[in-house]
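Changelog note: in this version the structure field was regenerated for every chain. One regenerated record is shown below for reference.
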Amino acid sequence: MKYLNEMPDDMLLDTPYRGEVRRFEYDTRTYDEGDDHPLHKGAWVYLPYGYDAERQYNVLYLMHGAFVNEDWWFKTFPETATILDNMIAKKICEPCIIVAPTYYRGEEKDKEAEYMAEHFCHELRRDLIPAVEKTFSTFAGGDVSEENLVKTREHRAFAGLSLGSMTTYRAAIYHNFDLFSWYGPFSGCCGPNGSRDEEVVRLQGALADAEKRGLPLDYLFCCNGDKDIAYAEHKEVMERVEKLCPQLVRGENYDFFTILGGVHDMKAWQLDLYHALQIFFVKKA
């Protein structure tokens, strides 16, 4: 696939083939050790134009960055849905369901954001995925037992921007590799407070463990702009991991796309999503 440094203009044009962005609420818990209590949370769910409850759809769980919430992708930036509508209408990607949740817990601010991002792994596995895939028509077929969610992992992806990119590593790859086989970290890996050495070890271990468990990686699609504040650490970590991990094969199940002139902003992240959806859920012959 040829990567672009700018979003094609026609992706931002209005189209009559509009999907629906629907509010979705579910019950979960904090899962904090010694302080576990119930929560009621919300997410936004994009349903493609012509959504049919009799059809099965792949699902992308798509995370925001720090200091915002689940509104980011579809409400703060409603043109995200327009891009998706055009991609699907022009058959650039297959229709899919996209879920935009949050790792934050309403007004609670007593935990570090990075803690919440990684700790989100419990809510993601035990509550969010089962609630979504019992409500909407996915390849899980309404059976949200852990056994079936693992069995249908090739129909599930996780991606995110900035701290959501870190969430992709920490909540999805490191803790829930058996539920996803497609990943899209957009802008960052360990963050300014993290250890690059530790991140290399964690990712190397996660990939080796997945291989031992017979859990193939369909694609790890990393993206960053060369002017992005998170570019240097993301690029270094992934270059080191690529050399160490035979599980990553450039162009087959892994790539690192650099946006020339790209910075840490929504323009870059929407472009990352545009490319990711041309890779996710596409099986090579």
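Spot check on this record: The chain has a mean pLDDT of 96. DSSP finds eight helices and eight strands in the chain.
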